[in-house]
Amino acid sequence: MALNQIVLPANMAHKNRSNWSPYKARLEKSQKSHLKAKKPLRGRHRRPTESYGFEEADDRIYDIFRNHGFGDYPHAKRRQLTKFYQLLMANQAEQNFTRLLSLRDVAIKHFIDSLMVSRLTKLQFPLLDVGTGPGFPGIPLKIEFPEEKIILAEGVQKRVEFLKSVRDELDLKNLPIIGRNINFEFFYPVQGVITRAVEDARNTLGNVVNCLQTGGKVYLMKGPNCSPEIDMALETWGEYYTLEDDIHYELPQTPHKRRLLIFRKLKPHPLPDFEELDLAWEREYGIDID
Q1: What is the pLDDT of residues 220-236, one digit of tens each?
Q2: Residue 79: partners with Cβ closer than 8 Å, 6 or more residues away
Q3: Structural domain spans, the chain
Q4: pTM for this model (two decimals)
Q5: How far lies 245's CA from each of 213, 217, 220, 241, 259, in Å?
Q6: Is residue 257 within a helix (H) or strand (E), and if so which, with residue range?
């Protein structure tokens, strides 16, 4: 593939001009609307409105899991999730990690949403969670698969520090944390990549093409309207990936629709000519690499 045909990654996702996604289009429209109305955007500096002791929180998560298809979830693992919930809420007031503040929303839209993937397909390890944020889906999946190697990648330093504290508090082993954004120049070998981030599928495939091994799989957790992303991804990367599965599903006993896109890597990608890559960056962005 010629260099000018490659969707060039950036060290920071917002620098990638081709990083189109429906989410970003909606966000820009929302921002303009709020500025016009002179209203603050929702989700900023939101604090938890609930406070539960550990046992009460655990009992409530048990009830939620039982009513939403996870009644068989192991007791010990659920208690680890409860501890994770408490750590997340304890840091929410200062760090604003999530827009989901009720225990019910966290249990369904974070925990069950993350765990559903392992019920829909067989994951391949080592598994790289790209743009994990405060740990989704990586932390729930690590609790689900304690013996497997899962790598969390996150570029925001305050989230990296939080992830390290969660790893220590929950005593999670074999859980490397990489404090950087994953891009075309990332070469750490993995057999699986998963992300619940909003980045366009085409860019995700390009960013991991040099670390994902041949035969490895990319698991993209998406909303129901991601078909345009599939077309663009295959148009750009069809030589190196095939769409192995497109699973439509709902979170159990909810109206929340999801899609799990599974791409399999077909063959190695040639290593980049870094001198040419630097020149391309300079032409495209006016950046003097030296």
Answers
A1: 999 999 999 999 999 99
A2: 58
A3: 50-269
A4: 0.80
A5: 18, 11, 11, 12, 10
A6: strand 257-265
